[in-house]
Amino acid sequence: MPTIEANYNDLLSLIGKRIPLDVLQEEGILYAKGEIDEIDGETLKIDIKDTNRPDLWSAEGIAREIQGRYGVKRGVPRYDVKKSDLVVNVDKKLKNIRPYTVCAVVKNLNITPDVLSQIIQLQEKVNITFGRNRHEVAIGFYDYSKITSPITFTAVKPDGIKFVPLEFREEMTPAQILKKHPKGKEYAYLLKGLRQYPMFIDAAGEVLSMPPIINSDHTGKITAATKDIFIECSGFNFRFLLPALNVLVAALADRGGTIESVKVAYPDGVRYTPDMSPKRTKVSTDFANKVSGLKLSPKKICGLLEQARYDAKADGKNIRLLYPAYRQDIMHQRDVIEDMIISYGYNNFEPINPKLPPIGSVS
Amino acid sequence: MCILNRSGNYKLTEEGEKYLQEGLPEEKLVKILKKPMGIGEASKRIDNFHIAMSWAKKKGWIRLEKGKLVSVGKPEKSEEGEALRRLSQGKEIGEKTLSTLLRRKLVRKEKSDAFKKASKLVGKEVTNLTPELIKTGLWKDVKLRPYDITVTGGKLYPGKRQPYNRFISQVREKLAQMGFKEMSGPIIESEFWNFDALFQAQDHPSRDWTQTYTLKKPKRGDLPAKKIVDRVGASHENGWKTGSTGWGYKWDPLKAAQLMPRAHGTACSARQLVKGVDIPGKYFAIKRCFRPDVIDATHGVEFNQCEGIIIDESLTFKEMVGVLKMFAVEVAGAEKVRFFPDYYPFTEPSVQLSAKHPEMGWIEFAGAGIFRPEMTHPLGVEHPVLAWGLGIDRLAMFKLGIGDIRYLFSQDIGWLRKQKVTV
């Protein structure tokens, strides 16, 4: 269960509505499947129960859910994506090393201390929990202004290149980083047995990072002065990489950034990422009522789901739905129905004792 | 035939027994003296004539007149005859008569062990009022040492069950009373029952929902029937016939066969669904589970989970919150309850119940949810299954007044002795 920290006033400004702390604690935070565990001045420590909803692991994501339930916004949050000129070429050498990356550019950011701490926290939570401690998903943020397109995602021998890793002063080879850098030592096991290590290198020959270990100190560092960010997620499976990227991009866009896509050229085809267009699903009114025990009209269900940030349209007894691209947890109607129940309010259900056989036994 | 007298036990002698049956010789003598009789004739008719004559004379019942014995008149009751009868019936007799009987050797003193024991104490100061002293009446002849009833006595430690073990039995009985049947399952479980059957994808973070141990030797166990295994695999890969998209990856039965110490009781529920369930049906299990952690006062690596399932045709989320509320009130004695959205990989919707206990305040008491169809359908159950788990260790710590979770499994005899039996 990820525990995240958020600033109360920062959260309110993201929501766009003043919600008293006690109301947030008793009710508001439940809509983000959270529980406020500790309050220290303005800092809230929030346990997010859902380990399959990385979109909720930041103030931005929590705010999106609360906005919906308090009528600030409804329906799917829209994210416009323009095309950038940036290209990432993926080397076929990576096939058995770390084959995939998905990338994005977010521009025009105003990186305040709150924004910076949220970005870093979200990156860390997604890396650790959703990315299974960087194995499935390793995330890199870079200062876009320092990068020359095209970037190459390739593999390099342990002593085949030198760069200055994050928070260090001297150039080191990949092999030295794994032995000497604290992050190198911590994550070396993820590269165990490989003869070449994954490496992002730009057109000027500047190393961006050696995933999933460490960024370079030159390009891979975000500060308050950074305006435009290049993001990449690398790993083995698009099932994890695409949602992770969408989660990060959505959070940055909620901070006022504009999203641009990146052309990722694989040996066998081109992929433009991110794709922030909503995904499609549906739910039946009868099934929703059967699971919840409520007797809701299609219209009422549409309303509850719009509060849960779906676009909903009744089609007879079925409800056609769109949901945000940062969600990857919706597999069955049940997942949608839970969101509906959360909108309805868990504490608004009338508890019923089931009528069941009275005879028990111990074995 | 004994009698307890103040000074001990007395028993009739053979002669005494004879006289008890036939009467005393002097009585017999008086009986035949309807008219005066010569000594020669009387001595022929009475055994022990000398005894008879001397006692009859002594008692003044006869006199000698002109060489003949004459009856003076027998009293209504013969004291000694009466005494023999009383002794034979275990009754007390007078001291004087007793001494006469002793002198005539009709009675002898019988010294019992109890009497021997008790008589040693006569005249001494005793601290123990023994059964012998009471039985023989000699307690009247000893000096009892004064006893201070205000002083605290020494402690006794009778045998009793380990308190946590006892608590768990009580919860089991309570659940059986509430109509739940107990489920079973092994401590060493395969990943199949612990994860795969619960729709936790092999390559997905939902598998890391809990930290777990794995077994090095033996590494793998048996999987259940192929039909079940194939359906579970299909459910992971493409949702099988459940209406789900599934996880969208290649499911590996070899990984599912990996053995591990059971990490949660829900493994037992999955097994029960395959074994077959009554509809409607209620089942529970209180099972030892293992998860890696840094052991301290609030964290252990082994603990008990109390889990249960309820199956019926038309159960809904309303019954789900109803069941949880019932537990909070019945098992934990809660005053108020609140429900929170929660997450379990195998339930959707999922819910957590916090209960306000009169003394403990608000506690997270239960986690629950309706099993996902991707889990239940491949295991052969299409009806809604409400699943719940109770924080039983926390409740035990509260009920037993334990502040350190490690004491739940304590073998510290000094501590165990002090634990109260009432819960």
Write the layout of secondary structure elements.
The complex is a heterodimer of chains A (363) and B (423).
Chain A: E1 3-7, H1 8-15, H2 21-26, E2 34-40, E3 43-48, H3 59-69, E4 81-90, E5 100-107, H4 113-130, E6 137-143, E7 151-156, H5 174-180, H6 182-187, E8 197-201, E9 207-210, E10 214-215, E11 229-235, H7 238-254, E12 258-266, E13 269-273, E14 279-284, H8 285-292, H9 298-307, E15 311-315, E16 318-323, H10 333-344
Parallel strand pairs in A: 4-7, 4-12
Antiparallel strand pairs in A: 1-3, 2-3, 5-11, 5-12, 6-11, 7-8, 8-9, 9-10, 12-13, 14-16, 15-16
Helix pairs in contact in A: 1-3, 4-7, 8-10, 9-10
Chain B: E1 2-5, E2 8-12, H1 14-22, H2 25-32, E3 37-38, H3 39-45, H4 49-58, E4 62-65, E5 68-71, H5 79-88, H6 95-103, E6 107-110, H7 113-119, E7 125-126, H8 131-136, E8 143-144, H9 163-177, E9 181-182, E10 188-190, H10 191-194, H11 226-238, H12 253-256, E11 259-261, H13 266-275, E12 281-290, E13 302-311, H14 317-330, E14 336-341, E15 347-357, E16 361-371, H15 373-376, E17 385-390, H16 392-400, H17 413-418
Parallel strand pairs in B: 7-8, 9-12
Antiparallel strand pairs in B: 1-2, 2-6, 3-5, 4-5, 10-11, 12-13, 13-17, 14-15, 15-16, 16-17
Helix pairs in contact in B: 2-4, 5-6, 9-16
In words, what does this structure look like?
The complex is a heterodimer of chains A (363) and B (423). The radius of gyration of chain A is 23 Å and the shape is elongated. Chain A has helices at residues 8-15, 21-26, 59-69, 113-130, 174-180, 182-187, 238-254, 285-292, 298-307, 333-344; strands spanning 3-7, 34-40, 43-48, 81-90, 100-107, 137-143, 151-156, 197-201, 207-210, 214-215, 229-235, 258-266, 269-273, 279-284, 311-315, 318-323. Chain A has three domains: 3-69, Phenylalanyl-tRNA Synthetase, Chain B, domain 1 (2-Layer Sandwich), CATH 3.30.56.10; 81-273, Phenylalanyl-tRNA Synthetase, Chain B, domain 3, CATH 3.50.40; 279-348, Phenylalanyl-tRNA Synthetase, Chain B, domain 1 (2-Layer Sandwich), CATH 3.30.56. The model of chain A has no long low-confidence stretch (mean pLDDT 95). Chain A has ten helices and 16 strands. Chain B has 423 residues and is α+β, with helices and mostly antiparallel strands. Chain B folds into three domains: 2-111, Arc Repressor Mutant, subunit A (Orthogonal Bundle), CATH 1.10.10; 112-153, no CATH class; 163-418, Bira Bifunctional Protein, Domain 2 (BirA Bifunctional Protein, domain 2, 2-Layer Sandwich), CATH 3.30.930. Helices cover 34% and strands 21% of the residues of chain B. Chain B contains 17 helices and 17 strands. In chain B, the strands form five sheets. Chain B has a seven-stranded mixed sheet with strand order 9-12-13-17-16-15-14, with helices on both faces. A three-stranded antiparallel sheet of chain B has the order 1-2-6. In chain B, α5 packs across α6 and α9 (163-177) crosses α16. Chain B is rod-shaped. Classes of the chains: A alpha+beta (363), B alpha+beta (423). At the A-B interface, α8 and α10 of A face α9, β9, α14, β14 and β15 of B.
